[in-house]
């Protein structure tokens, strides 16, 4: 099945850091992108599969990303045996290093008989599990079931697709187990919010696009200002604001042309300030409740490192809407806002609670812009769809739909 790969050759391989050549320009600054942990895991898994099934040891592995960008990632072989191969990639986070920058992400591909419990099984004959340094889900409410490894949906698909491509070339039909590991993942996870989410023992394998775009705070805020200046220069007085890609999808679902929407990231307060400064007259924020609920407490930077308070906000408004002390206790144990919504829905107070939250969001938006901009917000949930609108949102939705038709 495979050609011999000598130990001497393996030991002589040069360790290279995975470098993404993709760059983005923000406020006339060129910033180099990095690659996600999902891309690293997919490349390492593909490399291991190629050695195992083809006897082919490559210094670089090509993978496709959901963003449509093809990556050429340096890989190294750690172990090689007749029944398994272990490869790794050194993660490169680009010009905005995160806690996983420079860590080694391993993938071991092994031939197995039968099925291993608590594995992801989304492609025939291929099984995926997290090993050392990969977190385990311990609470309900996350995308993975309790007891499963914290490997998110998009990275899972990338990993499965990468290994399947090798199986297709070789017509291999047997079972393979793919194990992802980050030896120092447990220590790295202490610098993340994983434990608060109910993920214990390691980091998560993440990424929605495969590409890690720089998140320099100043660069992002400067870009927001530049976009708003450009929009006003074109004579446009209405602005749709979305925190990120989910918000863009939601805006399109509302019937807006979100092509000119401004991505505020976590900097909603700065975005509102720029709107006032440059003469924007109407502004509608569209996004996921997980971020926008923070506005109900006047938290205008929605990054978790600045403040969270999602559970506290939901709990207060649940009580104002008929909830009890027991409701508060249950909300405080929820992993995320989706789980909180499930709880409120089961108590038949979700609609009233969200109405109360939206009224408070409106108050804080109006206060931030000193009533100089007609503001509103529309809140979405991944499970429930559109779940809330501030008092002025309907007027703004009508305005933007009319503008798009003109």
UniProtKB/TrEMBL annotation:
Its EC number is 2.1.1.195. Keywords: Cobalamin biosynthesis, Methyltransferase, S-adenosyl-L-methionine, Transferase. One of its GO terms (biological process) is methylation. GO terms for molecular function: methyltransferase activity. It is an enzyme of class 2 (transferase). Gene3D superfamilies: CbiD-like. It holds the Pfam family CbiD. This is Cobalt-precorrin-5B C(1)-methyltransferase. The lineage of its organism: unclassified sequences, metagenomes, ecological metagenomes.
């Amino acid at each position: 099945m495979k050609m011999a790969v000598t130990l001497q050759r393996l030991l002589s391989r040069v360790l290279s850091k995975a470098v993404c050549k993709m760059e983005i320009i923000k406020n006339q600054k060129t910033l180099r992108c990095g690659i996600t942990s999902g891309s690293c895991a997919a490349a390492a898994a593909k490399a291991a599969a190629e050695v195992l099934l083809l006897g082919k040891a490559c210094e670089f592995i090509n993978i496709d990303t959901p963003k449509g960008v093809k990556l050429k990632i340096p890989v190294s072989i750690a172990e090689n045996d007749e029944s398994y191969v272990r490869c790794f990639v050194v993660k490169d986070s680009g010009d905005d290093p995160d806690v996983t920058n420079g860590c080694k992400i391993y993938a071991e591909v092994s031939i197995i008989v039968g099925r291993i419990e608590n594995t992801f099984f989304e492609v025939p004959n291929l099984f995926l599990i997290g090993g050392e340094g990969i977190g385990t889900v311990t609470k309900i409410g996350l995308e993975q079931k309790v007891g499963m490894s914290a490997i998110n949906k998009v990275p899972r698909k990338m990993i499965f697709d990468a290994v399947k491509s090798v199986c297709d070339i070789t017509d291999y039909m047997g079972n393979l187990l793919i194990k992802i590991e980050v030896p120092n993942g447990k220590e790295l996870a202490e610098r993340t919010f994983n434990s608060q989410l109910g993920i214990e023992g390691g980091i998560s394998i993440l990424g929605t696009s495969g590409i890690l775009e720089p998140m320099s705070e100043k660069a992002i805020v400067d870009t927001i200002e530049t976009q708003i200046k450009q929009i006003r220069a074109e004579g446009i007085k209405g602005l749709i604001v979305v925190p990120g890609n989910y918000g863009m999808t939601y805006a399109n679902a509302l019937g807006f042309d979100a092509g000119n929407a401004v991505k505020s990231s976590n900097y909603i307060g700065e975005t509102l300030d720029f709107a006032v400064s440059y003469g924007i007259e109407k502004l509608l924020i569209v996004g996921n409740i997980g971020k926008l609920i923070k506005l109900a407490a006047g938290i205008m930077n929605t990054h978790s490192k600045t403040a969270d308070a999602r559970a506290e906000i939901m709990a207060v408004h649940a009580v104002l809407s008929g909830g009890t002390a027991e409701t508060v206790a249950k909300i405080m144990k929820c992993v995320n806002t989706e789980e909180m919504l499930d709880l409120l829905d089961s108590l038949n107070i979700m609609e009233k609670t969200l109405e109360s939250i939206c009224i408070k969001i409106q108050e804080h938006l109006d206060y931030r812009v000193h009533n100089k901009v007609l503001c509103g917000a529309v809140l979405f949930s991944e499970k429930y769809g559109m779940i809330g609108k501030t008092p002025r949102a309907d007027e703004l939705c009508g305005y933007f739909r009319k503008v798009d038709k003109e």
